[in-house]
Amino acid sequence: MLRRSAPVRGIHSPVALEAVVVNFFWRSPVLVAAVLWSSAFSLNASAAPAPVFVLNSLDASVSVVDPVTWVETKRLPTGKEPHHLYMTPDEKSVIVANAFGDSLTFIDPRTAEIQRTVKGIPDPYHLRFSPDMKWFVTAGNRLNHVDIYRWDGANPTLAKRIATGKTPSHLWIDTKSTTVYSSMQDSDELVAIDLATQAVKWRIKTGPMPADVFGTGDDRFLLVGMTGGENVEVYDVTGPQPRLAKKIKTGQGAHAFRAAGDKRHVYVSNRVANTIGKLDLQTLEVVDSYSVPGGPDCVDVMADGKTLLVSSRWAKRLSVLDTVTKKVVHQVKVGKSPHGVWTLDHAPR
């Protein structure tokens, strides 16, 4: 049962209460001004666009870029060799994985302030949460293992370390949170790990130097970029064993994927060809291509669905591509060997 609030002593009518409020504001103009300024500041801060984060893998830092002025506003220190980043399930932090620093740096995705550092995470080169948010998985690029951690909403706890092929590179987890897929960069393999048993289900040989892995929404196909070649290899993973279904020629150094946000297309960077390809996931064909200089590596798509953020790995630049005009409209100077790039204001995955 709801209880009515007790009336303020000495005030027995709305008119009297109004008189008290007006008298308070009249006698306290400085306080009123402070309250109004604070409210305006809070509204302005919440309306400000989220910053863009670029990981400088050879500088042990993160460049924070303003997406309006396209200027680096500050640089945050991390552990050694930050390569990739991923948002926590509660969307309150973005985690930077410091591969050689054996640590995770948690950053506020809206204010770009460092929140905390978690140490004792061996070689977290690549990272990903399972869709059911129960598991946090890392690929140990130099230590040749995949680590599966339980996630309690705040901290990872190691559940199983799984020896894999040589140089596990990128990870993907299916929509049902049953299987982890990992490419093996130096043994040219794709490996599947069952999350329930935390054991390797199968492995298959791939083309040269497989890198990023991307799964279709129906979990039927896996796309794998061949950084040592010019193709994206497409595997049908619906059966007990995978089957190579197609090779899509995208350009030399096919490397990293990012969903376009329309549930039909995905972008792939071709690091040697200096291009970004656009793939149709229904036809499994290249439908468009864009020139981006400096060894395009990782990609993010802004919320407008037409602006691509690309780390130009060899040029120490963040390249901003307008896919409508097909032109690079901004290049922002960042640190050495920029790799992962991400913003909270991104297109749907």
Automatic annotation (TrEMBL):
<feature type="domain" description="YNCE-like beta-propeller">
    <location>
        <begin position="41"/>
        <end position="349"/>
    </location>
</feature>
<dbReference type="InterPro" id="IPR011045">
    <property type="entry name" value="N2O_reductase_N"/>
</dbReference>
<keyword id="KW-0732">Signal</keyword>
<dbReference type="InterPro" id="IPR051200">
    <property type="entry name" value="Host-pathogen_enzymatic-act"/>
</dbReference>
<dbReference type="InterPro" id="IPR015943">
    <property type="entry name" value="WD40/YVTN_repeat-like_dom_sf"/>
</dbReference>
<dbReference type="InterPro" id="IPR048433">
    <property type="entry name" value="YNCE-like_beta-prop"/>
</dbReference>
<dbReference type="Pfam" id="PF21783">
    <property type="entry name" value="YNCE"/>
</dbReference>
<dbReference type="InterPro" id="IPR011964">
    <property type="entry name" value="YVTN_b-propeller_repeat"/>
</dbReference>
<protein>
    <submittedName>
        <fullName>YncE family protein</fullName>
    </submittedName>
</protein>
